[in-house]
Amino acid sequence: MTPVRLPDPWSLFEAALWPLQQAQVHCSVLLAPQLSAEALAQLRDARLRRLLEHARTHSRLHARRLPSLPTCAPIDLHSLPVMSRAELMADFEAGLCDTDLDAGRVETWLRQPDRVGELIDGRWQVWESSGTHGQPGWFVQDRAALCVYDALESLRSAGAGALSTLATGGRMALLVATGGHFASIASFERLRRTQPWLAAVLRAFSILDPLPALVHSLNSWQPQVLATYPTAAELLAEQARAGRLQLPLRELWCGGETLRPAVRERLEQAFGCRVRNSYGASEFFCIASECAAGGLHLNADWLILEPVDAEHRPVPLGAWPHTTLLTNLANHVQPLIRYALGDRVRFTGEPCRCGNRLPLIEVQGREDDTLQLLDRKGTAQSLLPLALSTVIEDEAGLFDYQLLQTGPQSLRLQLHTSDRPALLRARSALKQWLRARELGQVRVEGRLGCAPLLGRSGKLQRVLRLESCRLDRPDNEP
Ligand SMILES: [Zn+2]
């Protein structure tokens, strides 16, 4: 006989309070953009204190790293240690609070693509990311954090406008890497699971699909809202200009990569709709949202960003930093405190004419190149950087590499390490993927022990095209 499991009284209490907590978060997200700088600082400091106390008390990693807090004096965030992804992942279990999750269970979970969007034990969502660090990361979110991200997405970002489109039967397409527990697809699938009315109007498409198949699927789905990376949107814009892709788009949302002004203009012309930018990461899903006036407002009530130099000292207001440190005030299960994000974020210090008082930022994020290779018939095929990196990272498990286009039919996969088995594995996965796209004749050279090449912004690029390989028009952007 199966023993009857009585519900834990504390879980019942938590469940009863949950709607109240959700309502509180939504009210706070609505009100914070109108707060004065002093009131916002007070709110942020109170959340920071709660996070630090929780992290010190409940996580072995943070108990070792963080000093005890002064009870009355303000917290000096700059005096706290900086954390890297390597440090977080080296002691993954010790970095968690109040959970019996262990690395083995998380790893097993992440290997199950059919569970993308599900919460482990109904309580935690785990996102995997390679990012620009060259090292995989696992980011565990609790339900309170997911509630904050949902409120930020639906009330402050482009989501606010799209809800009315979807509520009247409009459709949305998400074009991203879909094969793993990545933040975008996992959040999208979670929404589809928890909001059945949305499941019928939301559909995800994979950037790994060949372009003609993708164009066919999107033409059939006819979305009014499309969310994707700027490089993928540019590829689709070419198809729209050629008349092959015809979508009734009202809004195009871009994220995940840097959206340059000239690209935005080209996209708006090709699709005849507004383009909205956003900035997020696996470490905090909705870092900044674009307002109607085109300003990118930092969600400074729920996270702290510190632009710093190479020695982690603050840079002057308006200056571009070496890197940016992130403190996530919403998530208590895996505290991220002064975590080195890798992106370069600049505070403009200017007010926005939309009336939102949350600070304006500019971001230099991922800036990989779209490659253009000639197939057997001599036709140029565009390959998205995120599709190529997904093949190398997810199918071959290689994270520290650079892929260079060195000619119209040649690539070079280079590693600064001497890990030959990883190189061969990734080269083989890449060749197989290229063959499926009529690009089987493309040569993929492998090299070990290479110094990394830096891209235009001075940042490490994973996928880049050497200038001599350009098959398209010269890029006249700054
Ligand atoms: Zn604004």
What ions, cofactors and ligands are bound?
zinc ion
For the sheet with most strands, the description reads: 7 strands, mixed
Low-confidence segments, ≥5 residues, pLDDT <50? 472-478
Structural class, from secondary structure content? alpha/beta
- For the largest sheet, list the strands in their spatial order: 4-3-5-6-7-8-9
Rounded to an integer, what's the Rg over CA atoms?
23 Å
Q: What does the overall shape look like?
A: globular
Total number of strands: 20
N- to C-terminal separation?
72 Å
**Helix-residue proportion:** 25-40%
Number of helices in the DSSP assignment: 14
Notable traits:
35% helix; 4-stranded mixed beta sheet; 14 helices; 20 strands; 478 residues; binds zinc ion
In short:
It is built from 14 helices and 20 strands. It is α/β, with parallel strands linked by helices. Strands 4-3-5-6-7-8-9 form a seven-stranded mixed β-sheet, sandwiched between helices. Strands 19-18-17-20 form a four-stranded mixed β-sheet, covered by helices on one side.
